[in-house]
Design brief:
Number of helices of chain A: 0
Order of helices and strands of chain B: EEEEEEEEE
Structural class of chain A: mainly beta
Oligomer: heterodimer
Distance between the termini of chain A: 40 Å
Structural class of chain B: mainly beta
Number of helices of chain B: 0
Distance between the termini of chain B: 35 Å
Largest sheet of chain B: 6 strands, mixed
Amino acid sequence: EVHLVESGGGLITPGGSLRLSCAASGFSFSDAWMNWVRQAPGKGLEWVGRIKSEHDAGTTDFAAPVKGRFTISRDDSKSIVYLQMNGLKTEDTALYYCTTLSGTFKLDYWGQGTLVTVSS
Amino acid sequence: QSALTQPASVSGSPGQSITISCTGTSSDVGSHDLVSWYQQFPGKAPKLIIYATTKRPSGSSNRFSGSKSGATASLTISGLQVEDEADYYCCSYAPGGALVFGGGTRLTVL
């Protein structure tokens, strides 16, 4: 059974940094393209970014609002994907979900999310 | 990349069919069959119910179906049940490898 467990969320002041982790199990993590999706309180879903498998060069893509501030990395030996968030803004306040991305660009498995609150 | 357009809310009675539209552009929804739909209950993570515009993953009810015409994708739920009451989001592959979501539609079963 696939499990994705996010951690690392919390309260952070504007301009600060935070690193989220997503521990994966139940599938071949090294072959997976991993994504982050966020949801601001009471709002809709927003794609944040993705990291491809190392087999596919491990490259990353990001949504415009976070490009240049967020990075994604992975540790295939531990089956963990990370979201490093720098220069945080109040509008980054959201529940951050880790998801798998399979063929035909479907987000087929989701974690339960970790809440990030950016406030002074 | 702008969000896809969905109606904020739809409603229906048990047993009826409803359709939720998802309008994009010729660059995203209109250029491929890579639209997916997600169901989300309050306080829960989203769940994939349709992928590749028309396909259902295993475990997804056969009362859910997807279609597309031009730059508008649609999710139809037939034989509406009270337990279908949830938020529904469409998502499309977009230029440059991004994913773009719709704003979400709240389904109320009267």
